[in-house]
Known about the structure:
The protein is mainly beta. The chain is built from no helices and 16 strands. It folds into 3 domains: 2-62, SH3 type barrels, CATH 2.30.30; 65-125, CATH 2.40.50.140; 130-186, CATH 2.40.50.140.
Amino acid sequence: MATTSDIRKGMCLEFNGNTYIVVEFLHVKPGKGNAFVRTKLKSLTTGKVVDNTFQAGHKIEDVRVERRNYQYLYDDEDRFYFMNNETFEQIDVIKSMLDNSHLMKEGQEIEALFHAEKEILLACELPQYVTLAITYVEPGLKGDTATNTLTPAKVETGAEIRVPLFIKEGDLIKIDTSSGAYVERVKK
Length: 188
């Protein structure tokens, strides 16, 4: 058992008969009244995000999770297939369980969260950033570089993102997997 003072980003907990991961939290101590913790929780079974407020000192049931690295192999109509590089064990995951999966390419490493006691797969996460090559970019207009103008581009996985005008085909770029946004150009 844990209390609200133990809440942190990435923590898994049992709440209302479901397993959630803490996406955001904020400890609040108002001038009058008791302190509380405002949280944003993501359900690991449905993917739904809920807001909840816990009173300070409230007991919460934390879930012990194990994080294991898996390598992306391939996908079919509704599932992704991954392999553990140490044990060569393969798992399959429904596509709705993985956010921003359009940024994932074959051989990509992901992190799988397993319930430590029940040995149940809870969630899969991409790394914070991925590096992908540009396969197509819309040509920019000459003289349109004075502002932070973005143009549509396609990366090697087929995903479409917006990039600055100086990005050309064949460039490697770093993408934030949580938002799907361009971060920077990577030197070859």
